[in-house]
Write a structure and sequence with these properties.
- InterPro entries: Glyco_trans_1, Glyco_trans_4-like_N.
- It holds the Pfam family Glycos_transf_1.
- Keywords: Transferase.
- This is Glycosyl transferase family 1.
- By secondary structure, the protein is of the alpha/beta class.
- The chain folds into 2 domains: 2-177 and 364-381, Glycogen Phosphorylase B (Rossmann fold, 3-Layer(aba) Sandwich); 190-362, Glycogen Phosphorylase B (Rossmann fold).
- It has helices spanning 16-30, 69-87, 100-109, 125-132, 138-143, 155-160, 190-196, 217-230, 245-254, 272-276, 293-300, 331-343, 345-362, 365-381, and strands at residues 2-7, 34-41, 57-64, 92-97, 115-121, 149-152, 170-173, 203-208, 234-239, 261-265, 279-284, 305-308, 323-326.
- The strands form 2 sheets. It has a 7-stranded parallel beta sheet, with helices on both faces. A 6-stranded parallel beta sheet has the order 10-9-8-11-12-13, sandwiched between helices.
- The longest helix has 19 residues, at 69-87.
Amino acid sequence: MKVLLFSADYWPDPGGIAAHVYYLSRALTKAGAEVTVVGGHLAPLLHPSDKPQGPGTFREILIQRKGPRFLRGLWFLLRAWKVLHELAKEEWDVIHYHNFLPDGLLLGIFNWPYAKVRVMTNHSDVLLKTIDRGKSPRVFRWVVRQVNGIIGPSPELRDKSDVIRKSGQILTYIPNGVDIQRFVPGAPTKDSYELLGVSPEQKVILAVRRHDPKCGLHYLLQAIPKVVERHPNTVFCLIGDGEQTGALKRLANELKLGDSVKFVGRMSHEKLPIVLRAAYCSVLPSIYEAVSLAGLESLSCGIPVVGTNVGGIPEFIKPYQTGLLVEPNSPESLANGLIFLLDRPEERDKMSFMARQFVLSTFSWDAVAQKTMSFYQSLIQS
């Protein structure tokens, strides 16, 4: 099966879509597919990507988004148009894209390259926001009008995609995956603590989040005083950056959080497993969440997750088994959930074991690739 994966977000950029396409491409190759990735990225290439092993073939075409922020999308579209024009000379079984914009815009305008089927994975919480606010999803509907199938990486995204599909388009749920070989449980090392700027005596709570209002980090900061009042040796480490970084730092100063919170900044995917092993737990204070790869990576390392009961989070947080669900938009609920775990280290250790087992059984990339290949095949046959 010859598959073209197309995404404006790709390695080495951080973020869930970039990681999803990176790992899916390798898992599909391992499963025997002939895979070509056309991937956009903003971060510089410091070293070649890891090439997949398996019976399939693999090709990678990278397009760096350059220039001022408002021109980067246009730059990518122009470069991608030329690449797709060349790839149109080949025959494809599947074209699979991962963003409404700009991916879907470009592939929606042009009905090439030709493929037996087109598939779109709806990772977007923007669609969820649009629906919740009562706005028309006509733009989303136009972008996916030529696809044969839509994948939702959470049941909610699958179900909400029903408002944008037309007759004959097939919806399915295929979860996100996690690299179970890279994200493995283990004892923290000296590097684990040094990368975070903490000491082994502290209880580390990690928030691996883009600094975006939808991620709810302002609610997490408001929850910190209550947590550290009960557990003074707790430190919150925020990994990531974004448009809200300045505002979050100002809020931390206003709340006088001091050394109880550390803004670690962006961290490479290679270093994340190292710092995760230093964590007592992870936290997802999201207001909207399609599917959180950071949450799955925490569970894969045996780190329980306290997360809000929104979007795809309940698919992997099983209360009192892999973590705790709390109410969104509530610093009080967040604080209570975190205190519950900090008060009960034996309960936390039980969750740690169950978290790893749950990921192994449900979220390995091999399992995700097999489900994806089966979906491709069913669309081709129909």
